[in-house]
Specification:
The protein is α+β, with helices and mostly antiparallel strands. The chain folds into 2 domains: about 5-205, Calcium-transporting ATPase, cytoplasmic domain N (3-Layer(aba) Sandwich), CATH 3.40.1110; about 210-260, no CATH class. About 30% of the residues lie in helices and about 20% in strands. The protein has helices at about 20-35, 45-50, 75-85, 90-100, 145-150, 155-170, 210-220, 235-245, and strands spanning about 10-15, 55-65, 110-115, 125-130, 135-145, 175-185, 195-205. It has a 7-stranded antiparallel β-sheet, sandwiched between helices. A hairpin with a 5-residue loop joins strand 4 (about 125-130) and strand 5 (about 135-145). Mean pLDDT is about 75; it is low at about 1-60 and about 65-70. Its EC number is 7.1.2.1. It is a multi-pass membrane protein.
């Protein structure tokens, strides 16, 4: 592992893992691999449509991780993301990420949890302090990419590459989660620790609630002028609007500065 200031971001292989039914997806992946058939450019697209009731789906690939010496592979990235997730009383995203592991218990194997910091709307990330088998302290955090990128103090060129990747997956209607890690030499849960390392990005498919489209349709039928305000990127907002039957005529907040009221 190298410090995030000295790293590049490399694209890894494509694929998809869902929390349920994982076995069926894995079986399809193995079948595709053994058949030797040419894969589609977006192998996840067909699989996504097969599970409309699944509230959250995380793509196992493309996974974007730190490159060069000692680079982190996608399985290690997922383990670190799972460590920064609750293993009990989970929200949908935590349940999905932990469920991507072969065995959910891997999220805490070989470590002792010291303290878990739940998500809050200010920091927009979760974090965990833990002790490894060598009695060394570490922190891992996952959350909004801009928060993790700022936490890791990435170089401008690496930051640009990260944002290019985020923009690319958002064009497909996918959100992104970033993961970072640090060593905590002081062995105190609130200590600043060593510089944070940027581990990688996880594209996340986060569809609307299954009943949202029907609720909006009823409101429109009653003459309610429904508007959507979102903190997501424009491409993701448009995809959400399309799924909800609200159309794709949407604008970034900056457009309001020049609007005629």
């Amino acid at each position: 592992m190298v410090n995030c200031n000295d790293t590049d971001i490399n694209q890894q292989v494509e694929g998809l893992v869902t929390p349920t039914p994982t076995g069926e997806v894995e079986a399809q992946a193995k079948k595709s691999k053994s058949s030797g058939k040419k894969r589609n450019k977006a192998p996840w697209a067909k699989l996504l449509s097969q599970y409309p009731q699944n509230p959250h789906r995380v793509m196992k690939g493309p996974v974007f991780t730190v490159g060069r010496q000692g680079y982190l592979d996608k399985e290690q990235l997922l383990v670190n993301a799972a460590r920064a997730s609750r293993v009990e009383n989970q929200d949908a995203i935590d349940a999905c990420i932990v469920g991507m592991l072969g065995d959910p218990r891997e999220a805490r194997v070989g470590i002792t949890e010291v303290h878990f910091f739940p998500f809050n709307p200010v920091d927009k990330r979760t974090a965990i302090n833990y002790i490894d088998a060598n009695e060394k302290w570490h922190s891992v955090s996952k959350g909004a990419p801009e928060q993790i990128i700022e936490l890791c103090n990435l170089r401008e060129d690496t930051k640009k590459r990260a944002h290019d990747i985020i923009d690319k997956v958002s064009d497909r209607g996918l959100c992104s989660l970033a993961v970072g890690r640090q060593t905590v030499s002081e062995k105190e849960k609130n200590s600043p620790g060593e510089p944070w390392q940027f581990l990688g990005l996880l594209p996340l498919f986060d569809p609307p609630r299954h009943d949202s489209a029907e609720t909006i349709r009823r409101a429109l039928d009653l003459g309610v002028n429904v508007k959507m305000i979102t903190g997501d990127q424009l491409a993701i907002g448009k995809e959400t609007g399309r799924r909800l039957g609200m159309g794709t005529n949407m604008y970034p907040s900056s457009a309001l500065l020049f609007a005629t009221l």
